[in-house]
Design goal:
The complex is a heterodimer of chains A (292) and B (279).
Chain A (H helix, E strand, L loop, with lengths): L9 H29 L3 E4 L2 E3 L5 H8 L1 H34 L5 H13 L2 H6 L2 H4 L4 H9 L12 H25 L3 H9 L4 H29 L3 H6 L7 H11 L3 H26 L2 H8 L1
Antiparallel strand pairs in A: 1-2
Helix pairs in contact in A: 1-13, 3-8, 3-10, 4-8, 8-10, 8-14, 9-10, 10-13, 12-13
Chain B lengths: L7 H31 L17 H8 L1 H34 L5 H13 L2 H14 L6 H25 L3 H9 L4 H30 L2 H6 L7 H11 L3 H40 L1
Chain lengths: 292, 279
């Protein structure tokens, strides 16, 4: 209707988005492009490289099983974390959605509160639970069940636990958002047609909440596979993930071309998973999950 | 009320769901509670058992110049990030919801990317770029990086709210002769306030909390709060860290809660004021 008076002029729109667009170009796109170019640079010695083009970094990555091991371990830890998150996260999401409890907002608020607490603090707080002087060991020792502290900290299990702690709110909120969008009369209809409650759940509620579950799985997988702090604080040297490898390559060995190569590898691998996901699900669910 | 609650099978399933929910909430908060409790421990070691109540670790914290400096640095960075991100984010969300322009779809996808790409990759990328053009790492760079990380959230929150505001209000103001800018300021912005506040608070916490990317981007010798905690943890977990963690929890949980309460009472005041204006 209003098209006549160029009220929503594209030129004005470009001016409005300019600051963010420039930021995205110079801090996101350009860095990734330069990083891709760096993968072909020659490493001379710590902190020094030449712009002589070479395939040596890629050759090293594809032939050295050291890197493959890291990649597989990272993907495995990411997948396990995402799956456990999906299973554990579905229950609270369903509970919050279905409960008739009056103060539902409180349950939702409690899910958002962890986002406000520093991630570093949330991660190191697990040392107070799992450590030699942590709650579990001290309690078990006092009760006489064990005679020396169980080595729970600095294991892969501790890393996964820390990642679960960080990612569960994402999963629960994603599933909850998609449950909220279900038309509840559909379930009532299924029940009135003679479905048992289990059948109604299996045939109606669960399938309709799958988009949220899938978005949650992708988000948890990508964030877990890209993590750096959690393995650093809760794992031993053996439990380091790809993010730690990248950090050590760049900040420790100062091997920038190899560090760039590893970053591009992680970017491409995780990007493939995200692309497969968007191919089948679209971006909208992720947007809902992040914004909600 | 609940259709699924009927039948024996359904009741058990519901109980199981409730139990799992409780367990997940315990899992989420147990470590945090343990940390807060331990910060009051009189013992020299950062762990159980409790040997008595003491505030000495908080006193020690106030004397720790490094921690205080890191706290100030983080506070400033987070404040600037919150203000700038909210300003550019809201304007971008406005353009993305109200205008049609070529490349709009690409831009809406692009704007979410910083939230999806792992921070390690963003961190390395910017660092490589800086090295390629031979520039030092500066505080400005760190702040701009934080803005990049916070932009997706602010844009998404503002967009979600903007979709719910009908265009006719703005168009009415425009047709009555208001300028573009005053229309935005007098009509759109006041309706957007909840999203603006929510976005600013989130941007603040994202910046204040950022660890991985800050490790890459911070200038030599500068510590933000999270990187300071990380380097303290490398030595040992002392009761002082538990105290520091507790202070941080109080600050980062307190600010949004207070903000939310103020917002709520503001809207309530406004609602109470409205009928009076009419009479």
């Amino acid at each position: 209707m209003t098209k006549g008076w160029t009220l929503y002029d594209p030129r004005l729109a470009w001016m409005l988005v300019a600051p963010v667009l420039l930021l995205l170009i110079f801090f996101l796109l350009l860095p990734i492009a330069v990083m891709a170019a760096y993968t072909f640079f020659t490493f001379v010695t710590a902190g020094v490289e030449q712009s002589t083009l070479t395939l040596a970094n890629w050759h090293e990555f594809f032939t050295d099983s050291y890197y493959h091991g890291f990649l597989f371990k990272t993907l495995r830890v990411g997948a396990m974390t995402a799956l456990i998150c999906g299973v554990l996260g579905y229950f609270p999401a369903y509970f919050i959605w279905a409960t008739t409890f009056k103060h539902k907002w409180l349950l939702l608020l409690l899910l958002i509160v962890p986002f406000w607490i520093s991630f570093t603090i949330r991660t190191f707080s697990w040392i107070n639970i799992l450590g030699e002087q942590g709650v579990i060991n001290v309690a078990l020792l006092k009760l006489g069940i064990i005679h020396e502290p169980l080595p729970m900290l600095y294991t892969e299990g501790a890393v996964i636990l820390g990642l679960l702690h960080f990612l569960l709110p994402y999963m629960i909120l994603n599933v909850y958002v998609s449950l909220e969008s279900i038309d509840r009369t559909l379930i009532a209809a299924a029940r009135s047609m003679g479905c048992t409650s289990a059948q109604a759940f299996r045939e109606v509620t669960l399938p309709l909440s799958l988009p949220g579950l899938a978005a949650g799985l992708l988000l948890c997988f990508v964030l877990a596979a890209g993590s750096y702090v959690t393995p650093q604080l809760l794992g031993s040297g053996r439990d380091a993930l790809f993010g730690n490898l990248i950090y050590d390559t760049i900040m420790g060995q100062l091997n920038w071309p190899m560090g760039a190569t590893l970053s591009i590898v992680l970017f491409v691998v995780l990007g493939c998973f995200a692309a497969i996901y968007t191919r089948y699900m679209g971006m909208s669910q992720i947007v809902k999950g992040l914004g909600g | 009320m609940r259709a699924e609650g009927s039948g024996k099978e359904g009741r058990w399933a519901w109980r199981l769901t409730g139990l799992m929910t409780v367990l997940v909430y315990v899992f989420m908060f147990a470590p945090i509670i343990a940390t807060v409790v331990l910060s009051f421990n009189a013992s020299m070691f950062g762990g159980f058992p409790m040997t008595g109540f003491s505030l000495q670790w908080y006193a020690k914290l106030l004397d720790n110049e490094q921690v205080l400096a890191a706290f100030r640095t983080s506070l400033w960075i987070a404040l600037i990030t919150a203000v700038v991100t909210t300003a550019v984010g809201v304007v971008t969300a406005f353009a993305l919801t109200r205008f049609e322009f070529p490349g709009k779809k690409t831009l809406s996808t692009l704007v979410i990317l910083p939230a999806l790409v792992p921070e390690t990759i963003l961190g390395v990328g910017l660092l490589v770029l800086i090295k390629a053009v031979d520039q030092p790492r500066t505080l400005l760079l760190l702040v701009l990086g934080h803005i990049l990380l916070a932009v997706p959230y602010v844009v998404l929150i503002a967009q979600a709210r903007m979709v719910g505001i009908r265009r006719v209000y703005e168009e009415a103001a425009l047709s009555l002769g208001a300028s573009r800018f005053s229309t935005f300021r007098e009509v759109t912005l006041p309706l957007l306030i909840p999203a603006v506040v929510a976005g600013a608070l989130l941007a603040f916490t994202i910046s204040f909390d950022n660890t991985s990317a800050s490790l890459f981007w911070r200038p030599a010798g500068v510590e933000t709060m999270p990187t300071q905690i990380l380097s303290m943890l490398k030595i040992s977990i002392s009761p002082e860290i538990n105290a520091l963690g507790t202070v941080m929890i109080v600050v980062t949980v307190g600010i949004p809660l207070i903000g939310g309460l103020i917002l709520q009472s503001l809207t309530r005041l406004k609602r109470r004021g409205e009928p009076k204006e009419k009479t």
